[in-house]
Amino acid sequence: IGFKINIEQLAKSFNYNNTFQANSIKELNDKMPLFKKAQGPVLMEIIVSKESRYDLGRPTTTPIDNKEQFMSFIQK
To answer: Model pTM?
Structure first.
């Protein structure tokens, strides 16, 4: 269901000033400077694949670790 929701339209209905979307690491890296400079509130939608790799192992980091790594990434 989440892949059918228009996140940009939803964010605008909540008065977000800017929204961005990234479908790849390259797009995320390209749009991050714009995201950081945008006047808030601002939203970055990151599109992910519904599938997983056949050789995908179990997570080695916690959700909190993931959040902190992501927050560190966007502050650079």
So the answer is: 0.66
Amino acid at 28: L
Low-confidence residues of the chain: pLDDT under 50: none
Which residues, 6+ apart, have CB-to-CB distance to 28 below 8 Å? Answer: 22, 44, 46
What pLDDT is recorded for position 61? 93
Residue with tokens 């961005």: 20
Question: The tokens of 49 are what?
Answer: 């694949």
What pairs with residue 22 in β-bridges?
46
Dihedral, CA of residue 47, residue 48, residue 50 and residue 51, to nearest 10: 150
